[in-house]
Amino acid sequence: MNDTAVAGWRESKWLALAEFVLVALAMIYRHWLPVSITPYLLLLAWISLRIRKVSWRSVGLCLYRNWTISLSLGIAFGLALEAFELFISQPLLIRLLAKKPDLDAFSALRGNLGTTLLYIGFAWTLAAFGEEMVYRGYLMNRVAGLFHNTRRAWVLSLIIVHVAFGLAHIYQGVTGVLDEGLMGLFLGLLYLRAGRNLAVPIIAHGVSDTIDFLLMFLGKYPV
Prior knowledge:
About 70% of the residues lie in helices and about 0% in strands. It contains eight helices and no strands. It has helices spanning about 5-10, 15-30, 40-50, 65-95, 115-145, 150-165, 175-195, 200-215. It starts with a helix and ends in a 6-residue tail after the last helix.
């Protein structure tokens, strides 16, 4: 196979579609996957980037200007995102649907400091780092690339990926799916607004989830 053919295969829409099928299968059969779906999707993302010779830096894995700006913006947006969820989106969804998100999977956190600290570690690794790399860094770019990276393609990518992001939280019930989908949408917008930089959304995601777990420890979440 000559270099032109190899390059064409790497950029083939069929390769992208095959990856999307694998993502869909992982979501459908997530109950078969130990721990979390995120490490498996992250592995798929890494393989995809390696095959296509695309670096993580090119999809945003780098500082936004510098550490100070990245941390400041990440913390600020994380606090704003959490405040919006606690005082606006989640109460509104609970009122409309008459159901709180199903957070039984996190019931062990209540009053248990050791478990809470463990989950905060997961919040920064599997959730903040892993999910931002997968959904914002990998999938948003992959979907937009399938439609030639036009402005419309990025809007379509934002919608499709965050429907999937919401559905990835289906264990939280319909309220959790809608709430997480909305939070993911905001993180996607933040990713785009930061010039497709992952540092700010990673920090914002970690801050928001850390507050959630601390509130669960105190028995104050969901609202």
